[in-house]
Amino acid sequence: MKNFIRVVALGGTAVLALAACGSAPSASTSSSASASASSFKACMVSDAGGFDDKSFNQSGYEGLKKAGTDLGVQVKTVESKQESDYTPNVESMISEKCDLIIGVGFALESAIHKAAEANPKVNFALVDSSFSDASGNAVTLANAKPILFDTAQAAYLAGYVAAGVSKTKTVATFGGKQYPSVTIFMDGFVDGVAKYNEDNGTAVKTLGWDKAAQTGSFTGTFDDQSTGQTQGKAFLDQGADIIMPVAGPVGLGTVAAIQAANNGSMLIGVDSDWALSNPSAASITLTSVMKEIGTAVFDTVKSASAGTFSSDPYVGTLKNGGLGLAPFHDMESAVSSDLSGKVDALKADIIAGKITVASASTPK
Fold this sequence. Notes:
Layout (H helix, E strand, L loop, with lengths): L11 H10 L5 H12 L2 E5 L10 H16 L2 E5 L7 H10 L4 E5 L4 H10 L4 E5 L3 E2 L5 E2 L4 E6 L2 H14 L4 E6 L4 H21 L4 E3 L1 E2 L4 E2 L8 H13 L4 E5 L4 H11 L4 E6 L2 H4 L7 E7 L1 H13 L8 E3 L6 E3 L11 H16 L12
Parallel strand pairs: 1-2, 1-3, 3-4, 4-7, 7-15, 8-9, 8-12, 12-13, 13-14
Antiparallel strand pairs: 5-6, 10-11, 14-16
Helix pairs in contact: 3-11, 4-5, 6-7, 6-12, 8-9
């Protein structure tokens, strides 16, 4: 299991607000900065989900596009269709003479790691994973930045909401593959349900994940949506009425299962606000555990293009706005004001350090 490291990450709105509030540059400085930005090339390699996955690849891609528009940098992307594409795709970006190469997803760790070591004059970044040696020990690369998220914090709030809304008193979660960036969602979700039970004297069950044993349900893929439909139906058949799939596009299969059941069951999205990124699922999406990947990518490109790239990890938290719980949108009527207020209070307590949401995969 890869080790994660903490660092502060700013939310996109805050970044833009700070930029807007800064003093205006002189004409000569502006011209120089513009020339520098226009010659800077920021590049991105997707994992097998592709940039239209309605999830973390798409979020990263949108952050890169924003950097191209707002900062005036050149951008270049390449999509991976399968695992064997990772290394050649990263190498193709090196051949394109990219100044910064960002790999989206922990699956690219090996390809980015090797490329960073072989190309010390090129900067790299990797979403959802730190770097490790052959023994799994964390290592620091001077030209490679981990972009990480303490996702358990926001998933904890989602678990609390799910337990409070569930009519069957059974909720569920599953992952694509058992990686730290997946199980950290599941750990937080389970703890949030447990907190609701503690506060309310209830016994809401969570299917799909045993936090203590670190064992549970995984589809073995982040691409095959049929596996998400099968797993979703299995949970529905066991009485779950709220499901949180942590499996990228595979979660769309769970959407199909819930819609086919048509029994009032709901879904909790991950990475982005699924009610917005998947409009056809808005009517069944209770909320989403959001990672501000686009903001992290934008900030990383901004620093690198300004000549201030740092390999210090970027870790999103509730406190710095790198994480969030999406609005309830169409499901707002399902969440009582008392429950919503309690979730807000829990979020404040996490931010203040009064509550620590622990996970085996928590960034350290």
